[in-house]
Structure formats: structure tokens, C-alpha cells
Amino acid sequence: MIRNSLMTDLPISRMMDDFFNTGIGEVLDHVPTARPKTNIIEAEDAYQLEMTVPGMNKDNIQLEIEDNTLVIQGSVEEKEDEQTPKFFRREFRIGAFKRSFKLPKNVDMESIEANYKDGILLIRLPKMEKVESRRLIEIA
Predict the structure, then answer these.
(1) 90 by DSSP, 3-state: which?
(2) 120 with 50: CB under 8 angstroms?
(3) Of 4, 46, 50, 84, which is most buried by a Cβ count within 10 Å?
(4) Cα dihedral 88, 119, 35, 128 in deg (nearest 10)
């Protein structure tokens, strides 16, 4: 009995207890960017990305293509004022995110479309018509 009470008072025991009883959001609170969950779907004529970004406005999200890579980023500043509640526990936050996806060579870069609705960012990446990678060269 005495041994158990001593063990719970040791700093390492308290640290382990705090670690296992703390939400992952609190452990990772110092991480400046999030990594939104993304589904990637391939259809016959296009690829589609579905990304969860709840709590954002479409004006806070930016998409760009750089070196055949789709870069998606967004951020929302949290403003604290006198009416901001003091949280006892806070598991969801609005912050910043950045994701990059290397695009296949058959994506038609000029026809990419994006929509945002109900916290889901939908990006349609149309495929180009099949480009023949082999051809015969006539000798003159």
C-alpha cells in the first residue's frame, strides 16, 4: 500500500499519467500547421481530392501549382477579445494548414476546378486525353 502511494507521487509517474490522460490536441498544441484529412479518388476522366477544412471560409484557402505540385494552404487568425471565453479544455482550433500533392503527368493543368461547401474542399483534376508516348519516325 505504501509503495503504491509513493509511486504515484514520483515525478515520472505523474508525467506518464499526464501523457496518457492528455488529449492529443494538447500534446501537439505547439505545432503551427495542421494536416487536413484528404481523400483522393480516381475516375476514368479525372482525379478528385476531397479535403476536410471545417470552419474556414473559401477566401482563406489558396491553391497553386508549382513545379507540377498542387499546393493547398489556408489560415484563419484567432482573435481574442474581452468576450472570448476562457477554455478549460479546447480540442478543436481554427489555425493554418498546408498540404502538397505531386500531380501525375496526365493532369490537364488548365482545367483544374475547386469548390468549397460545408467544410469540404473539392478539387477536380481532369485527365488529358491519352498522349501517345511512342511514335514512328520516317527516315527521309
Answers:
(1) coil
(2) yes
(3) 46
(4) 180
User: Is 0.90 surpassed by the pTM of this model?
Assistant: no
Round to whole Å and give the CA distance between 123 and 61.
12
Give yes or no for a contact between 75 and 96, defined as CB atoms under 8 angstroms apart. yes
> Which set of grid coordinates corresponds to residue 87?
477554455
Helix axes 2-9, 11-20, angle to 10 degrees: 70
Cell matching residue 35? 494536416
DSSP 59: G
Grid cell digits, residue 7 = 509511486
pLDDT tens, 66-124? 999 999 999 877 666 667 777 777 666 667 889 999 999 899 999 999 999 999 999 99
